[in-house]
Amino acid sequence: MPRRIVASRELATPSPPPLPEPSLKAREAFVAYLRVEVGASRHTLDAYARDLDGLLADLAEAGVSDPVHTTPRHLSTHVASLRTARSLSPASVVRHLATIKVFYRWLLSRGRMEKDPTELLERPHRWKSLPDVLSPRQLRELLAAPRPPENPKNGIDALLWIRDRAMLELLYASGLRATEITRVERQDIVGEIGVVRVVGKGDKARLVPMGSPARAAIARYIDECRPTLLRPDGRDKGKLFLSRTGRPLGRDSVWNIVTDAAQLAGLRGVHPHTLRHSFATHLLSGGADLRVVQEMLGHADIATTQIYTHVDSARLRSVHKKFHPRG
Question: Would you call 206 a catalytic residue per the annotation?
Answer without folding.
Answer: no
